[in-house]
Amino acid sequence: xxxxxEYNHTVRMYERSLTQILQVLRRIRCLTYAxxxxxxxxxxxxxxxDVISFTITSRQTVFPLSYGQPQFAVTVHHEKAAxxxxxxxxKKAECKSQENIIFTKTHKTGSSTIxxxxxxxGEIHNxxxxxxxxxxxxxxxxxxxxxxxxxRTKANIFAQHANHNIEFLKNHIQEGAKTxxxxxxxxxxxxxxxxxxxxxxxxxxxxxxxxxKLFFKSHGHQRxxxxxxxxxxxxxxxxxxxFDMGFSTERYVxxxxxxxxxxxxxxxxxxxxxLVLITEYFDLSLVLLKRRFCLEYEDILYLRSLERVKKETVxxxxxxxxxxxxxxxxxxxxxYFNDTFWEEVEKEEGIFEELAVxxxxxxxxxxxxxxxxxxxxxxxxxxxxxxxxxxxxxxxxMNTRCLPFSLLLEARDDMRVTEEKLEEIKxxxxxxxxxxxxxxxNLDRKTDIINLSL
Length: 454
Known about the structure:
The chain is α/β, with parallel strands linked by helices. 48% of the residues lie in helices and 8% in strands. The longest helix has 26 residues, at 2-27. The model is unreliable at 30-93 (pLDDT under 50).
């Protein structure tokens, strides 16, 4: 009885307080504003309720992080946790994961990470890759029938370096394929390629910037793509993204109206690719890819790799302007698709909330798989895997460079590779932090668990 009296007393106190507040609001004629504020708050709470559902639980839960069934379990440990459901712009009934994919791999844009993602995606979901004969390389290639893996006339995914040839690929990729590529700011792409491909050895100087200046002082580069398509030592360096996308420098140089020629190429490119990602917004690009291709979070997770130990830069405005000038085709392509990228992002409701979830998960995967770093390929940083990571297919696969990953798949699938050659291959791939041939054959893709928490 005493508790009831205390309760009633408390209610009367709140009623009196509320009455006093309303009297004050009436005096200052703010009641209307108060009602508007209450209505707005109610509306916001209603909308938030539509986006986020909360489930309080005290046991371990295993659940997919987005619609569909996960191909490796994401296990969440918690005592009391909020389960977040991110609202999709494409409903589940309308969304089927994309099986057939054509990726145009560009140089020094983060495309190797995406190729790794697509190689893993194919392995986990049993989608075949359109591969070259064993052993292939990362050399720039024109697509030719004679270079393809024997016995595989059609496949689900293409994610290798090649001059883009959509007609050729349509004949070798299953119907219903979606196409995408990735572009990088031409100045930073140039500097990265200049360092990665060892151009400093061709133009020795005391500093990286002086080496770049020396490049521009040599060979009459001011004539390049004005009255000649010749550019000494420019391979994979100058307008490389345009060449990867199938741009014809010969037709461009011979054209009477070069601006119209570039405009025509951009119109054709907009029709050729369903999606163009941007390196400077890499994680956001992957989330956009996830949505448009109906993928899962686990499909786009990655480990950072091939980062330079020392970031080489150029600061002099004249040199930066010279880079932009010689990269003017790539600059036009990048500017156009950077605009379309943000147009596509603006269509995606809730994408930045989904980005935050993805980045948190990716940090946890990095923490689970990696325990340190070492100097690796071409002087870049390479990951040293944790003990758990070295036994986990997903960690090993994420940490395997796309070239050895592709070579291992080629060796497995190329009917011309003999048993004797396979024994040699087994001895070639011995990095404990990357996949080897036995792991490609035997490691389970489906049941390895990476523990993540929201």
